Structures are given as C-alpha cells and as structure tokens.
C-alpha cells in the first residue's frame, strides 16, 4: 500500500470514529494495566464483567495485595488462565508498591519488567493511559495490517515497526484503536465483512467477500461502537468460480 492510500485509510477511520478508545472499562492506569493483563486469551466483555466486581474491592496495588492471590482468583475465575494471571498480578502489585510508589510507570523498560507484561501490553498502557503514540499489535491488528497490505509483516514486531514507520504522525495515537476495532467488527478472521468496510476500495486483499462498485461510497461504517450505523453500500459478491451474483437479502 502506498503512502497516499495509507493516508486515505486513516482519514476515513478518523472521519467515522474521531475519538476511538479501548473497550476495556477502567478509570486509572492501574485498572487499565490489570484489565489488559486479564484480557490475554479472554474477551473484553468477559474481562469487564470480572473487573466490574473486582475494582469495587481492589483498584489499587495495595488493595490487591491485601486481597491476596486466592482472593483475587475468586473474582477472575471465569477467565482463561486465571491462576497464572492472579499470580502475575500479585507479583506486579508487589513491584509497583516496592519500586514505583504504587504507581504505574510511564516507561517501557519499567513496564516490561513487570510480571505478565510484554511489549504489546506496555504499548497499550503507554498509548491509552499516557497518550503516547505507540501501536500495540494484537491478533486483530496483525491480521488487518497483513490482509489489507497496510503494513505486512511475518511477526507482530515486524508489523509494529512497519506501522510505526509508515503511519502519518497525526494518526499514530489512534491507529491502534482504529485497527483493533476494524479487525474485531469488520475485518473478521474467518470471513471479512467487506460490504461494511469503509476502506474496501483501498484494501489490497485479493479475496474480498464483496466488491464495492467503482465510484460508489458507503453511506456509513460500523466502527465498533454500538450506536454506529451500518454500511448500506451496493456490492457484488463473487462466487468461487468467479461469477457475479447479487448478495442475499
């Protein structure tokens, strides 16, 4: 994807969703850190259900230490790998209290030294909690970047480096959120919903499920928010044999 198309892509995301953010419910950097650690191999919906109750009793490192590992497990036992997550979070809380005065550090190196915190989680914290122009690459962003041709790469780090290098500066802060929402709700893993894609004509994926006719523009796009309207664009669906047929009603 060339620079002109890349800029158009982000301009459209910005126009349809000017203030994107994470779907993990939080009210502080520490709550966000806990939610992101819990979100590994779990849905944001499931994490939010768990943290809604958890944060009422423990939403600081000290309070979580007082709750203890076994107490923490009772609140997060609906999530995958909750035993490992509880152990890592307690160790993280100990490190935050002992080394950082109970505050989440605004430093990549310090964040990545926390148990259960890798580069992706550190990028999310730096971006969402502190407004840094970092781009965390999860499975959704990895797929979208490769499928569309926006930033192809063999590894998440390859994709992150490519996005960081090629994304116009004014879009870097929100790029992570736009791409993750796009991957979660439109450019899905099993079957991308190209008829609802605001960047369909820019996308370089050769096996689109629908094709927007030249000159046609979608009326609206779903951006991940509940109130966002759905696309009402006319499209053709190609069969495996290459024939064109009308989409089902």
Give an account of the 3D structure:
The protein starts with a helix and ends with a strand. The chain is elongated. Helix 3 crosses helix 4 and helix 4 runs antiparallel to helix 5. It has a three-stranded antiparallel beta sheet with strand order 1-2-3, with no helix packed on it. Among the domains are: 71 residues, Endonuclease Iii, domain 2, CATH 1.10.1670.10; 101 residues, Endonuclease III, domain 1 (Orthogonal Bundle). Strand 2 and strand 3 form a beta hairpin. The chain contains ten helices and three strands; from the N terminus they run ααααααααααβββ.
Count of alpha/pi helices: 10
Shape: elongated
The CATH class of the domain at 29-129 is identified as Mainly Alpha
Major beta sheet summary: 3 strands, antiparallel
**Order of the strands making up the biggest sheet:** 1-2-3
Structural class, from secondary structure content? mainly alpha
How are the secondary structure elements laid out?
Elements (H helix, E strand, L loop, with lengths): L2 H14 L12 H10 L5 H14 L3 H16 L5 H19 L7 H5 L6 H11 L9 H10 L7 H11 L2 H17 L25 E2 L22 E4 L5 E2 L4
Antiparallel strand pairs: 1-2, 2-3
Helix pairs in contact: 1-10, 2-7, 3-4, 4-5, 8-10
Short structural description:
The protein is mainly alpha-helical.
Core attributes:
elongated; mainly alpha; single chain; Endonuclease III, domain 1; three-stranded antiparallel β-sheet
């Amino acid at each position: 994807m060339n620079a002109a198309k890349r800029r158009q892509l982000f301009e459209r995301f910005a126009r349809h969703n000017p203030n994107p953010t994470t779907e993990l419910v939080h009210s502080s950097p520490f709550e966000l850190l806990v939610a992101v650690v819990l979100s590994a191999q779990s849905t944001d919906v499931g994490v939010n259900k768990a943290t809604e109750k958890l944060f009422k009793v423990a939403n600081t490192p000290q309070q979580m230490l007082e709750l203890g590992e076994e107490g923490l497990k009772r609140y997060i036992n609906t999530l995958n790998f909750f035993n490992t997550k509880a152990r890592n979070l307690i160790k993280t809380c100990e490190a935050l209290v002992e080394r950082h005065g109970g505050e989440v550090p605004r430093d990549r190196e310090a964040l990545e030294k926390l148990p259960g915190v890798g580069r992706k989680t550190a990028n999310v914290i730096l971006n969402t909690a502190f407004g840094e122009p970092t781009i965390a690459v999860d499975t959704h962003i990895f797929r979208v970047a490769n499928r569309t041709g926006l930033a192809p790469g063999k590894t998440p780090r390859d994709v992150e480096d490519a996005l960081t290098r090629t994304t116009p500066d004014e879009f870097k802060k929100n790029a992570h959120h736009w791409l993750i929402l796009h991957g979660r709700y439109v450019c899905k893993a099993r079957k991308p919903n190209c008829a609802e894609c605001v960047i369909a004509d820019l996308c370089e994926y050769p096996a689109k499920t629908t094709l927007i006719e030249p000159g046609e523009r979608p009326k609206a796009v779903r951006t991940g928010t509940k109130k966002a309207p759905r696309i009402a664009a006319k499209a053709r669906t190609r069969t495996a044999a290459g024939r064109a047929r009308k989409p089902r009603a």
